[in-house]
Amino acid sequence: MDDLDREILGELRADARISYRDLGARVGLSANAAADRVRRLLRTGVIRGFTTLVDPRADATRPGLTVFIDVRLRPDVDSDDFEALALRLPGVTETAHVTGEYDYVLRARVTDAAGLDQLLRRLKHEAGVAHSNTRIALRIASR
After folding, report:
1. Are the C-beta atoms of 77 and 68 separated by less than 8 Å?
2. How do residues 96-142 score in pLDDT, each as one tens digit?
3. Element (H, E) at 136
4. CA 79, 80, 81, 86 torsion-angle sign
5. Confidence at residue 107, expressed as pLDDT on a 0 to 100 scale
6. What separation in angstroms does the CA of 112 have from each of 54, 118, 127, 142?
7. pLDDT tens-digit map of 38-89
8. Pick from 91, 121, 122, 128: which is nearest to 107 by CA?
9. CA 15 → CA 23, 43, 57, 104, distances in Å?
10. Contacts 24+ apart (CB under 8 A), 83-91
């Protein structure tokens, strides 16, 4: 990977739907050369894919609240088993093994307070969570 590839990646981060013609013009290449470089970056795994970021307020198909749940596991719970089970629970989108007072922080999407209550109950009864602390995201910014 060279400086031109890094420049291409910067442009794609800003606008992944940019045409190869416009991408080439921004980085000083022809459309074909820009396309070849993007295909190579995809083939070699530098670019793993493209995604769409949707404003949660505009997406009626997604639940309404994003929550972050700090969890401390019971001593008898295996962390690999916990991760696998937690990721199968409806709404849990990420688990992160962390340092500090808690063992994990989970990111989840729930419909409302009742959905959060149901998720917390399942974490405690099915996944071996001994203690939890939940925060509701008021606003999420991403790049």
Report:
1. no
2. 999 999 999 999 999 889 999 999 999 999 999 999 999 999 988 87
3. strand 129-136
4. positive
5. 96
6. 19, 10, 21, 23
7. 999 999 999 988 887 766 556 555 658 999 999 999 999 999 999 999 999 9
8. 91
9. 9, 20, 21, 33
10. 85/126, 85/127, 86/123, 86/127, 89/119, 89/122, 89/123, 89/126, 89/127, 90/119, 91/63, 91/115, 91/119
How many Å apart are CA 88 and CA 76, to the nearest integer? 20
Domains of the chain: 3-43 (1.10.10), 56-136 (3.30.70.920)
The values of phi and psi at residue 131, to 5°, are -150, 145
Q: Would the pTM count as exceeding 0.70?
A: no
Which tokens go with 102? 């808690």
Beta strands in 18-113 (DSSP E): 65-73, 92-97, 104-110
When pLDDT is averaged across residues 25-43 and rounded to a whole number, the result is 95
Structural element, H or E, at residue 133: strand 129-136
DSSP state of 110: E
Q: What are phi and psi of 102, to 5 degrees?
A: -110, 160
